[in-house]
Amino acid sequence: MADFFSQLGDILFLDIETASLTERFEELDERLREEWIKKEKHLQKDPDGIIEPGSLYFDRAGVHAEFGQIICVGVGYFQWKKKDKKLIFRSKVFEHENERDLLIELSELLQKKKWVLCAHNGKEFDFPYLCRRMLIQGVPLPEPLQIAGKKPWEIRHLDTMELWKFGDYKYYTRLELLASVFGIPTSKDDLDGSQVNTTFHLEKDMERIKKYCLQDVEVTARVYLAMNPGIDEMDIEIVHLENLKKEHK
To answer: Predicted 3'-5' exonuclease PolB-like domain: from which residue to which, for each copy (predicted)?
Structure first.
C-alpha cells in the first residue's frame, strides 16, 4: 500500500480542451483550406453525398491537431498525508490567448519531475495532440512526451480507457460511463465536449470551459483510484492551484 501511494504522487492527470483554429472556415490559411476539403471527403458519412466545402469544419476540425488548437489544459496530482490518512488532489488549468505560451508553460511543468502522464483516451488523443501542437508551435517536446525510439515499457503514459479495456482493443468506453458505473459525480452537468467549440468561438466563455476541463481531470483521477478498490473510499481534499508550477520550483 505504501508503494501505491508513493507511485500515485508521480502521476500527473491531465485533460486537454481543443477548438478549431479559426471560427470560420474562410479564415483558414489557403493551403489548410485545401487540405481540409480533402480530409472532409473522408469524414462525411455519405461518400456519394454532396456537401458544401468547409461545412464540417466548425464541428469537426477541433479534434484534428493540424486544423485545431489547444485552448486549455487541466492537470492534477495527488499528495498523500500519511499522518492524517488523507489524499489531497491539487489541480490547475493552463490557459492563454496564445497557444504557444500555454504549451511552453505546460512544458515547463512536465520537465519539473519524472511524471507519469495519465488521461482518459490519452494515448489516442491527448498525448499525440499535445505533441503535434507543440511541434507546430515550435515548442520542443518535454521528456514525458518523447516516445520515439523508446521501448513500450519505457513510455510513462497511463490511459484509464486502456486500463478498463483489459486487452480488449475493440472496446471504447466514455469517461462519463466509467464515472457512472463507479458512482463518481459527472463533469457533464454544464458542458460536454461537443459544445466546446461553440462555447469558445461564439460564446467566448473560457471560464466555463476551464471549469469543465478541471472537472474532467478530477473525474479521471477518481476513476483511476476506483480501479484500485478501497483506495477510492478515502477522503480526498480538492485544491485548485492558482499557479501549479510554483509547487515544483
So the answer is: 95-229
d(CA 226, CA 219): 10
How many other CB atoms are found less than 10 A from the CB of residue 106?
25
**Strand extents, DSSP E, 9-101:** 11-20, 68-81, 86-94
pTM over 0.85? The answer is: yes
Residue 151 CA to residue 118 CA, distance in Å, equals: 18
Alpha-carbon separation of residue 219 from 94, 185, 200, 242 (angstroms): 18, 7, 22, 20
Mean pLDDT per 10-residue interval, the chain, length 249 residues: 77 97 96 95 74 92 98 94 83 95 97 95 97 98 95 94 89 91 80 91 95 94 88 73 49
Q: Are strands 157-159 and 116-119 parallel, antiparallel or unpaired?
A: parallel
